[in-house]
Amino acid sequence: MEDIRSYLESGILELYVLGELSHEEAAEVQALAVKHPEIADEIAAIELALEQYAQSNAIEPDTAVGQRIFAEIGPAISLPASPVAAAVPPQHQTVTDPETGNQSARLRRLQFWLAAAVTLLVVSAGALFYTYSELSAARERITGLSLQNQQYTRNATYMLKSNEELRTMLNMNADAGWSAVRLAGTAQAPEARMMVYWHKESKQVMVNNVNLKLPEHDKNHQYQLWALVNGKPVDLGVFDAGKDTSSMMIRMKEIATAQAFAVTLEPAGGSKNPTLERMVVMGAVSI
Fold first, then answer.
1. pTM of the entire structure?
2. One domain, residues 183 and 276
3. Are residues 182 and 130 in the same domain?
4. Which domain holds residue 279?
5. Edge-to-edge strand list for the sheet holding 178-185
6. Which of 138, 158, 188 is the C-terminal boundary of a domain?
7. Does residue 120 share a domain with residue 18?
């Protein structure tokens, strides 16, 4: 009998009611409750005292605060249901304890365990919220660093490409084999102008994209460069105006001989023959 009294005062039943025991420990309490009616009565009394304490000390939480916390930490946290109902046999659900002193001691003990459980829950929720906030901040920092790295890579690539094109332009200026052909606007586009570079020996043809002044066109059309060879137009490829400013020079198709260069506006992809009424610039090659 003394062992039963010590067991009742050990605090394990309060932990059982609060759902803080492991599966094995809870199973042991359930088995003892079936075997010893006084343990079952104690469990029922603790449950009743817990209900009375909760009702007398209930505080209505701030709805806005609760919504904010759970919106931040994700899915709602639910407390495990007390397994008392399954543990206590039906014949011990009703408790009559005539000893007022024992009831008061039991209530004080239950208050202590309840306060400890609430404190643990608050600390756990706070720690979870803090961890979630730190993870969110770290994720934002990583995203920011990734975007910065991508921008740095793009800038570095652009600078390398620009340096290569600058070296090419310097070499072109130093090479007497390059001829600069100025193309002036026609009646279709009087303000248009552009510069074409042609190397007679290597047959290379380049369009200066920096000083390109042609009317912008829609996505269904492109400009097409033509070389006039003995009065016949020869296709040198298509390009866009005002679309790509990352390249200083646009490489076109090669040509061995030409007396003039002209540009017409054609359907996207180019045409076999130039549309003369859509010629925007033209320039003769200096002899």
1. 0.46
2. yes
3. no
4. 178-284
5. 232-239, 221-229, 260-267, 279-284, 178-185, 193-199, 205-208, 249-251
6. 138
7. yes
184 vs 194: CA distance, rounded Å: 7
78 and 126, same domain (yes or no): yes
Q: What is the number of structural domains in the chain?
A: 2
Cβ partners under 8 Å of residue 69, min gap 6: 125, 129
Which of 87, 80, 82, 81 minimizes the C-alpha distance to 29?
87
Residues 124 and 182 in one domain: no
Distance (Å, whole) CA 145 – CA 152: 10
What digits encode the pLDDT tens for the residues 100-126?
A: 556 666 666 776 777 777 777 777 777
pLDDT for the residue 146: 75
